[in-house]
Amino acid sequence: MAAHWNELSPVLRFSLVLFLVGIFHVGGALLANRFPPLSTTLHALGTAALGAGIFLTAQIFNLHENWATGVLLWAIGAAAGFVLLGDWTQAAALAVLAPAWLISEWSVTTEWHSGGDRPLEVGLILIAICYLSARVGDQASRSRRTLVWIGGIALLPCVGTAIAMAFSDRYAFFPVQQPPVAISALVICWVVVVAGPLVLAWFLRGRSAWVNVVWAVWAYFLLLSASYSASVGRNEYHRSLGVTLALYALCAIGSVGLVAWGLNEKRKGATESGHRRVCNLRALLLFRQLHGEAGTLGEPARSWIALPGGGLRPGSHPTQADGADGEEPVNAMNKGILLGAIQIVVVLSLGAKLLYDRVTRPRAWVLCEVYDPDLPIRGRYLSERLRMPAEGFAYRESNPPNSSDWLINNQWAYLEVRDGQLIAKPQGSGSAQWVYLHKDHDGTIVAIGQEPVLLFIPERADIPSLRTGQQMWVEVTVPAKGRRVRSALALRKTESSRR
DSSP string of 192-248? Predict the structure, then answer.
């Protein structure tokens, strides 16, 4: 199928994506009663196929969409799976995708801005610690154990990445700095990255979440010391010995604190486990004394089923044929089918929105420049920067001319389609993006988009090389708002004619 993917029509490819998203969940629903582990695996594959379907939808219709929105839709599908099924695989997907969406959304928001890394650095450490501390005592829930595994694996990479990002905060190689992030956006981000992990920790740990507050303070001072331990400006390297020693001391305190915290949790878990077993045994003996040890003659024996939290509940037969955690088989099957329907609707809504924008939003042919493609994906695609007429901007001359346009003439531009042309303006509303101004040989000022536009091409399509006097033009669809223009198709045209 992969070898002939580009030979399929867009409608057939989209139908195949929907089929793959739905078939796994249908299979998981049908096997929920007879083979619960296989059912869990198929539902996990269905949620994974949802992510592939979301990102393939934009590629199928050749539209460059905000990638953070795709992660959000994927996280919504995983959240639906966790709410309906409660599987540990859905919990793992949600635990990874929810922070991934927040990180990607913040990356898009702060692109070409300065001062937006510190909240992201703190958030990386806090969410990893929150997951690591999800299991309190001897709680044996699979979802909690999954969070602990994710937190344990991600903690060191997250701390290392955050410290590396903090080091780069003090680097200033260029005399002109990027505009700072808006104060309102920073306040919202700080509230999310601090309150989010702490609220989740309180939900998972109760009053024991005060330890996570201590770790939040530790993470902030760790990153603060990392950002001030060294700096580079105008080719001069500066290192502060005192701050560097403080950084090493905080790392040592964190290591010792994690070990002590783990030992304390293990000892508490052993104590709570013994106390819970004694309480359960007392309850069972009391029940037998009240109702008779053997029960009524002819009445089926009554069994006790262990709950994930450590308690007991009565069952009608020792070999109950219930679904996961004692759930009725029919109910489990219906939930699986409902999950598949929800995730199919997610993909359909994205495809419908993209097609609606293609039909209703204005289009324009735009001259473009080839930009180096760097996506780690299979297939052929072009990465193009758009060249647009600029109106109302003040161009700053450089010496030599045009040598630093991408730095000193970096501007925020609003896009408008007028008379079939895409024009960049400093004032306006709707779709906007970062551009840099460039002066052509005839003195005309043009705006060149900083964010490249991607154009996916079938593998067997013939793309001749540009000849002298030829240019690359791309037809783009301008969204109502946001920072992306969406490419529809491309043609090569000469300077003197347009087809």
Answer: HHHHHHHHHHHHHHGGGGHHHHHHHHHHHHHHHHHHHSEEEETTEEEE-HHHHHHHH
